[in-house]
Amino acid sequence: MPTRSFCIITNPLAGKGKPLKLLSTITQKFSSQNISFKTFENNLPDSLNEFTDLLILGGDGTLQYTLNFYKQIPIAISIIPCGTGNDFSWVLHGDKSLEELLEIALNGTPTGVDAGSCNGRIFLNGIGIGFDGEIAKLTGGRKKLGGHISYLLTVLKHIFRYREKQMNLEFDGVDTAGKYFMVAAANGQRYGGGFKVSPFSSIHDGELNLLIIHPLSILKRLRYLPLIERGRHLDLTVIEHRQIKKLKVTSNETLTAHLDGEVEEGREFEITVLPTRFYFRH
User: Cβ of 249: how many Cβ atoms within 10 Å?
Assistant: First the structure.
């Protein structure tokens, strides 16, 4: 078995500094087992060629930044969730302890995981355009409250004044246009720090799950929000959902979107699934 060598990437700003608190525990464990490692906080190494493993300490934002920095990662990836949003880690591992996650990083089997791409930018959880994007844009200043709480507070504040956006959607030979409350393409089951937007998504099926939400009255927005949070919304008549491989969204006005919580604005979004793009230890 080849000698293990870990590249440990830490975001010191994530999760109220929690990654730095965990880093000492992790490096002590690695040192006690004579496992080679190098740590990086602000500047990522240009190449991962000298390493056998990549270990990321942070949340969804740190994970997405790292994957987009390298685009292709030829080594096994592990993640210790300690950000404001940790949705992808939850999809991958559930609510495991630090000890269990370290055991996975050391002895887990690399498993192929799908990703998505929007205008060349990689995401793991999903992309939301419209209401979702506006919420992500407004959430930034509330991150100190925690991912789920900040997301929920911003939703409740913005839900009364948001107006549906005109969009043209192209997917699987379908070309349709209209005003939509939200359009999402999900790879994982949840984002927003715990909102189960696409409860039946799989990160192993080579497809994205398209979710189209038609215009909603204020009353329906308030009534359906708890259902979306718990993943019980797919049977609602105002929602369409299906599996796709590609999606193109265009508009005559600037749309706000988020990719795993990171904001992107524009009038055209080219979205596609990237089957088995990365290998995470599981």
Answer: 25
Q: How far apart are CA 100 and CA 248, in angstroms?
A: 40
Task: For CA atoms 63, 142, 18, 193, give the dihedral sign.
Answer: negative
Q: Are residues 144 and 61 in the same domain?
A: no
- Is residue 115 in some structural domain? no
Poorest-pLDDT segment among 8-22, 137-151, 242-256: 137-151
Is the C-alpha dihedral spanning 173, 129, 111, 48 positive or negative?
positive
Which amino acid makes up residue 79? I
Asked if residue 114 belongs to a domain, the reply is no
Q: How many separate domains does the chain show?
A: 2
Banded pLDDT at 244 (limits 50, 70, 90)? very high
- Do 136 and 207 contact (CB within 8 A), yes or no? no
- Structure confidence by residue, pLDDT tens digits, 64-105: 999 999 999 999 999 999 887 899 999 999 999 999 999 999
Among residues 108, 133, 155, the one where a domain terminates is 108
Give 76-111 as a DSSP string.
EEEEEE-SS--HHHHHHH-S--HHHHHHHHHHPPEE
Q: What angle do CA 197, 260, 55 make, to 5 degrees?
A: 120
Residue in the block written with tokens 């990654």: 19
Average pLDDT of 149-157?
74
CA separation, residue 103 to residues 85, 100, 127 (Å) = 22, 5, 31
pLDDT at 25: 92
**Residue 268, burial from CB neighbour count under 10 angstroms (0-12, 13-18, 19+):** exposed
DSSP string, 24-78: HHHHHHHHHTT-EEEEESSS--S--TT-SEEEEEE-HHHHHHHHHHHS---SEEE
